[in-house]
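Sample entry (583 residues):
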Amino acid sequence: MNTMDTTTTSSQATYQTALRTAVMTGVFSAVVCALLVVNSYRSLAYDPLASRELKKLKATLVRQPEEEALKNRIRKLDLDLRQKYFRQRELSSRGTDLFLLGTILFVLSSQYAAVLRKRLPLPKPGRTSNPWDARTAWITRWWVGGLGVAFAALLISYALKPQRALTRESLKVASADGTGQSQNAGGVPTPEEWKKNWPSFRGAEGLGVSAFTDVPTSWDGATGKGVLWKAPVPLPGMNSPIVWNDRVFLSGANETQHEVYCFEAKTGRVLWRASAEDRGASQPQSFDISPETSYAAPTMATDGQRVFALFATGALAAFDFEGKKAWTQNLGLPQNSYGHSSSLAVSRNLLFVLFDQGSIEDKKSKLLALDTETGKTVWQQKRPVGSNWTSPIVVETEKGQQVITVANPWAIAYDPAKGEELWRVGEIGGETAPSPTFAKGVAFAVAPGEKLVAIRTDGRGDVSKTKTVWTADQNIPDICSPVSNGDLVFLLTSSGAVTCYDGEEGKKLWEQYLDVNFRSSPSLVGDKLYLLSEEGVMFIVAADKQYKLLGKAKLGEQCYACPAFAEGRIYLRGKQNLYCLGK
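Predicted structure, serialized as tokens:
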């Protein structure tokens, strides 16, 4: 065989390999795509919030609240649906990765085969086969077969990758100059002033606990009873109101606008409205945001001098209390399947931004501490977690202040001054959305649909085995954050299961099924538990060792945000309006 024949044979072999690879990867991608479509329809059938059977059983339980067999049936069905729902979501994520990989290989091999095909000479008449042709065909078959085995192994490894199983079982602070700002030296609020305002998501430390107990317990949005004022919010958002003295702040956004609003607390009058966009920064051309999060999901925060707002695009802006822009940053579009929704937290002169994204392997997640006055980064800490929808809390422990975070697979605490990791606890699985809470030296972290973990906060390093006080695995939330006074811990699932656990031992004290859905997290007001449903109905329950419904109040508008509490008042964000409730 001469050199020309050898080269031609080699080219033909390469062409055949590329062609067969293209066919195999094309078929593989088509099969995965079909499975993804089927899986998508199946996941809809397993959505616990849309289950007709579950809704029917819950409606029956409302009429027969003492029927234990019915409770067990609801619990079993709810758990079964959640297991299947999260499993389908995990399969969708893995299937999407396989589809993209297969499609990329298909395109590359197809293009390569097309290029080789043009270079091949036409076959010569009467040409006979030779040993090189047989050897080339043998190599090609082994190459394509090996690639097929590799794909099969990849598919099997994805399918068999371990999944986390879901188991069953009167201090009023007034502003001296009328601006609503803190008037303390250096601009840093005192601890008393901090606690008597509502400066961030779920209050002063992010715990959902009100310092005031004289808040209203009845109102009616339809008649206006108990509604002091109602003000439209120009742009939509899922974020909750924050309050500082005589100011109430919200943010709103759509595809083209990002805004911050300042309302007068007494009247609902819009004091100012400001754009949070940085005209000098590059903006993403287009991106998808889930309607469950929106373009303005993160709740704002304030240090008593400035207010801070973060949006799904990664745009971050600070304003003074008169609406003048102090500084802006663009953190970049986070890699997050539903849109970024982690709320901001403030302590002293630091603004904390939990910017988790991507997968655990991507190593893109981080916690940022920014100077509240300038926006400059004081420190940042890489985090061994993937994207999530939780918010950090900054609490005072017996070991000093800690920034406590929760994300798959770790609950991690940091030193707010230096960013040093203090402790971590593993086994936090699932698509984490509930934020942590803290009471009497114990942090409570939720692995959605799987378990609640009570953690002593006085440890160092990996304290998974040494500082885990107790765990619970019944009626574990998937969206709503827990709330606790230390003696009792209250959980609320999006499908309406309310559960009370003993704070010291983790024993379940009671559970109650409400025939409504929730996204807003529960709040503690003295000896009362406030639960705001998606339909805008507030259930007021005794925060006690026995379940007792104290009352219900209807707003008449859908609500997804958490309430903000002040002296004698509650501020609620509805789908279109901001409400002030009071006597």
